[in-house]
Write a structure and sequence with these properties.
The structure holds three protein chains of three kinds. By secondary structure, chain A is an alpha/beta fold. Chain A has helices at residues 9-14, 16-28, 44-49, 52-66, 77-93, 97-106, 113-120, 140-145, 151-157, 180-183, 185-201, 212-224, 234-239, and strands spanning 2-5, 32-34, 71-74, 110-112, 133-136, 163-165, 206-209, 230-233. A four-stranded parallel beta sheet of chain A has the order 2-1-3-4, sandwiched between helices. Chain A has a four-stranded parallel beta sheet with strand order 6-5-7-8, with helices on both faces. The longest helix of chain A is centred in the middle third of the chain and has 17 residues, at 77-93. The longest helix of chain B has 13 residues, at 3-15. In chain B, the strands form three sheets. Chain B has a six-stranded parallel beta sheet, with helices on both faces. In chain B, strands 8-5-6-9 form a four-stranded mixed beta sheet, sandwiched between helices. Chain B has a two-stranded antiparallel ribbon with strand order 10-11. The chains are: A alpha/beta, B alpha/beta, C alpha/beta. Chains in contact: A-C, B-C.
Chain lengths: 248, 210, 471
């Protein structure tokens, strides 16, 4: 199957290793990966900050770039939630009926990474090896907007050597929220402080999630506190094998 | 323009000419599925979650002695009643205060009050008064500190919708309704539940299996 | 009008560790209870659907239902008043109280009266208002503002309340035990209930078909106010009308379970005009006034993307699950409507210029929408209102320019690549071991407790190109 990768702007600039991991996993599973280079940002930051007009031009770009793709995969829960939940609304608000139709036709072919593996490919064991104690943070978008349920956990449980530890208060937001983290920095860090405490309570070496925005937030806190606990995107865990895993 | 016209004009302008949405089909339960015995059992189970004193009686004759015993236990000497309360429910030696537009201070706190009810709801452990027979006016069941309420098993419905369907006639007649589920309570201080605030602080339900 | 923003107010409350503890304890208790009793009903989701549908259909023909309510209440012996704004509502209610020569009034369920700032108007007219709900009374005695829709004194703990009562009620004997404090409140209010001739209430629902008004409560102060005084004045927002009696079947199930986490609240009073009162005193007021308040609601109705704000039944469940509310506290919202619903309702009532920081006081985590008994899409409405804040010119100029610039970059990948390489050069003095401890303004808020990852040497895009070329 030809998979078109939507890397997302955030991962492109800050977390290229996540995209590389997605490519590794998909190719290992027999998919051919394409990366349409005209792609850009999904428009989430603009939309959620109140700049919806700017977001609409990014909606148009996304549709033009990916319209003919068989399957589009993104390793970012919030960007997929943006496409599914907000694109139809933005197209309608822009009064562009044609864009609305194109969005409706495209949206069902956009998959979040773990969703693509479990639902579309029907695979839970991707042949990964990761000999570490790991806790999983469910991003708000994976939990609510995308309702991914235990798909990410099923993938993690199938990883050889991985010890999965449950995170307390798993449904609670880490406090990122895009520009919220800056505009309401104190409330955001108060939320983060509790999340970090729960992560540290698990004794995990690694906190993982399906979204690097939460992970940048949690990881930023773990780093500031010099905890030694790392924030690692789930795709990077699934990409590791006996051949690539660093000795623990 | 009056405020009435101004408000209505603003509402109409806000709504514009858009057609009203067609009514959605409701899928919630408008009827229960339990038989009478199960509904009564559920009612008792729910009452157990409230701070209610429950007596299950086999027949009407058991009401008067139970009332007498409960008054003795609560150390009340006067029994306030609605004027149309069945005589058979009243203990022989009770000092009775029949409510005939009594001034509020006469009802305040001291007496026990004995009434019937309109119906009860199993699913929520609720009793409803509708100002009908043997229930009296609202002040009568509000000011005294101890309310004894007789509920006949046949008056127990399973669900809230059934209760509201049965109460419609009373409402159409302009009668007020009071729903109570346990005695008055508050959780306003640290969300710690305290039973007994302004309404009756003690509630007895006398469920009569007739 | 205060010029303070949500972050400025939250700055104070976040430092109050007592407040944080009080909030955490109370909200987690309510959260557990509401989750249990709502899951218990097999048709809970169907009830939510019905609640949402009834509200949507009612609002779509609100004018018709209000006129029907006016007719039915009048037929039942009540008097209906219309108030386009807060000033008119105050004028009507103060006028009625004065006409009855009231020196004091007793009050129950007073969120709407807070909204129209009734108490100061009564006091200015020489009428002393007594809040009778325990929490409202605490807030009134302390000269504070409510901080939670349902538990207005949630910010105060027992020892603070004990000290307040000992002082204000002149009861040096009182302990800090909630039981003792509750008994003190009962004793303090008892005579007022029995002797005060005028009561003022809010309303949870009013049924247009029958003219009935509904108040749900716990303590019995509602029953007192609604039953004993000769005159009852109830004020309700125009969105509270329900067309049919049958609709109560849904809302009397949704509200208690979502609100206090009870299967049914201890007391619900439903009265229909004054018919009962005419027959016998002590069965309700002899004179009943219903004030229908707009005060900005018709404007919300006109904004279709925000209209569902008016579905709210004030259960407060969204507050109890909100991670922002739990930490910033109710006072950070500077309104009688706090939490997620406050963040959408308050700016629409007060104006985006006065309360424009509220729609941004959310991480958009969606916990509120997930539990809302009438399925208000609060995150979508927050985003919509953020757009209005920007479009109506209440956002900073700098932010607007930055967003425009970002938009241009995102739309031109070549420019983006250039910006990234400039970023890599610019971050050199800031980055160490792959992390940046201090970001420059306006992003410096991030650096409060969080490192930022340094830009890696190579973007994904560059890696992909290199890989393709080498194949």
């Amino acid at each position: 199957m030809l998979v078109s990768l939507f890397i997302t702007c955030f991962n492109d600039a800050l977390f290229p290793q996540t995209g590389q991991a997605v490519v590794t996993v998909l190719e290992r599973l027999g998919c051919e990966v394409a990366f349409p280079e005209a792609q850009s940002c999904c428009g989430q930051m603009h939309n959620n900050s109140g700049y919806q007009q700017e977001a609409v031009s990014l909606v148009r770009r996304f549709v033009e770039v990916f319209e003919d793709a068989e399957a589009i995969v993104a390793p970012a829960t919030s960007c997929v939630a943006m496409i599914r939940g907000q694109y139809p609304r933005l197209a309608r608000a822009a009064g562009d009926a044609k864009l609305e139709r194109r969005v409706a036709a495209l949206a069902p072919r956009v998959f979040e990474f773990t969703e693509f593996l479990t639902d579309r490919l029907g695979i839970e064991d991707v042949g990964a090896y990761y000999p570490h104690r790991v806790t999983y943070h469910s991003s708000c978008n994976s939990l609510r907007a995308l309702a991914l349920g235990d798909r990410p956990l099923r993938l993690l449980r199938a990883v050889r050597g991985l010890e999965l530890v449950e995170l307390a208060w798993a449904e609670e937001c880490c406090g990122f929220g895009g520009t919220f983290a800056v505009k309401n920095a104190e409330t955001s860090t108060a939320m983060l402080a509790d999340k970090l405490r729960h992560v540290l309570d698990t004794g995990a070496e690694v906190c993982t999630a399906g979204d690097n925005s939460c992970l940048m937030h949690i990881g930023g806190g773990l780093s500031r506190q010099r905890t030694g606990v790392r924030a690692v995107h789930l795709a990077e865990i699934l990409a590791c094998t006996e051949q690539t895993a660093p000795a623990s | 323009m009056s405020d009435r016209e101004a408000v209505l004009a603003a509402v109409r302008a806000a709504l514009g000419a858009a057609p009203a949405p067609s009514p959605a089909q409701s899928a919630y339960r408008r009827k229960g599925e339990m038989d009478a015995a199960a509904a009564q059992a559920r009612f008792l189970e729910r009452l157990a979650d409230y701070d209610v004193h429950v007596e299950v009686l086999d027949d009407v004759q058991a009401i008067a002695p139970t009332v007498a015993r409960r008054m003795a236990e609560r150390e009340t000497v006067t029994l306030a009643i609605p004027a149309d309360l069945p005589r058979a429910w009243i203990p022989e030696n009770a000092r009775v205060l029949a409510d005939d537009a009594l001034p509020y201070p006469a009802l305040d706190t001291r007496p026990s009050v004995l009434t019937g009810c309109a119906l009860a709801i199993a699913e929520t452990g609720t009793v409803v008064l509708d100002a009908g027979a043997a229930q009296g006016r609202r002040a009568l069941t509000l000011l005294p500190d101890h309310h004894l309420c007789v509920v006949f098993a046949r008056q127990v419905v399973e669900t809230v919708p059934e209760a509201l369907q049965n109460l419609k006639a009373a409402v159409d007649a302009g009668r007020p309704l009071t729903f109570f589920s346990g005695p008055s309570a508050t959780a306003d201080i640290e969300f710690d539940r305290v039973v007994g605030v302004h309404g009756p602080r003690a509630l007895d339900i006398l469920l009569v299996r007739d | 009008m205060t010029a303070e923003t949500f972050p400025q107010r939250a700055h104070r409350s976040l430092r109050d560790s007592q407040l944080r503890r009080n909030l955490a304890k109370a909200t987690s208790t309510i959260r557990t209870k509401t989750a249990k009793v709502s899951a218990e009903l097999p048709d809970w989701e169907a009830l939510r659907d019905a609640g949402q549908a009834i509200k949507r259909e009612t609002l779509a023909e609100l004018d018709r239902h209000l006129v029907a309510l006016e007719e039915s209440v009048t037929r039942a012996g009540g008097v209906v008043h219309w108030a386009a704004d807060a000033a008119e509502a105050r004028r009507i209610i103060v006028g009625l109280a004065k006409a009855h020569g009231a020196e004091q009034v007793i009050k129950i369920k007073s969120m709407t009266t807070d909204e129209v700032e009734l108490n100061p108007a009564l006091e200015a007219a020489g009428i002393r208002p007594f809040e009778t709900d325990l929490a409202d009374m605490i807030v009134q005695m302390a000269h504070e503002k409510p901080s939670h829709l349902l538990v207005p004194a949630i910010h105060k703990n027992r020892s603070e309340i004990g000290a307040l009562f000992r002082d204000q009620m002149d009861r040096p004997d009182l302990s800090d035990q909630p039981g003792d404090l509750t008994r003190a409140a009962r004793a303090y209010l008892r005579d007022k209930f029995i002797e005060t001739p005028v009561a003022i209430s809010g309303a949870n629902f009013a049924v247009a078909e029958t003219g009935s008004v509904v108040v749900v409560e716990s303590e019995g102060n509602g029953r007192m106010c609604l039953t004993l005084p000769k005159v009852l004045i109830s004020i309700m927002g125009i969105e509270k009308v329900l067309p049919e009696w049958e609709h109560l079947e849904v809302f009397l199930q949704l509200l208690p379970r979502a609100s206090t986490g009870e299967r049914m609240n201890p007391y619900t009073s439903i009265w229909t005009g004054t018919q009962a009162g005419e027959r016998r005193a002590g069965d309700g007021p002899g004179e009943f006034h219903l004030v229908l308040l707009d005060n900005g609601r018709s404007k919300i109705l006109a904004d279709e993307a925000a209209r569902a704000t008016l579905h709210c039944i004030r259960c407060s469940r969204c507050l109890n699950v909100c991670p922002v509310y739990q930490r910033a506290g109710g006072h950070a919202y500077d309104s009688m409507y706090q939490g997620p619903i406050g963040a959408i309702l308050t700016p629409q009532l007060k104006g985006l210029d006065a309360a424009g920081s509220l729609p941004f006081a959310s991480s958009l985590c969606g916990a509120c929408q997930e539990v809302c008994p009438v399925r208000i899409p609060i995150p979508d409405i927050l985003v919509h209102l953020r757009g209005r804040v920007v479009r109506e010119g209440h956002a900073g100029l700098g932010e607007g320019l930055a967003m425009k610039a970002a938009g241009t970059l995102f739309d031109h990948p070549a420019l983006m690549a250039l910006a990234l390489s400039m970023g890599r050069a610019a971050q050199a003095p800031l980055a160490r071991d792959g992390r940046i401890e201090r970001l420059p303004p306006p992003l410096d808020g991030w650096s409060l407790g969080r490192d930022f990852p340094a830009l890696p040497k190579e973007s994904f895009r560059a890696w992909w190109k290199r890989r393709k070329a080498s194949r």
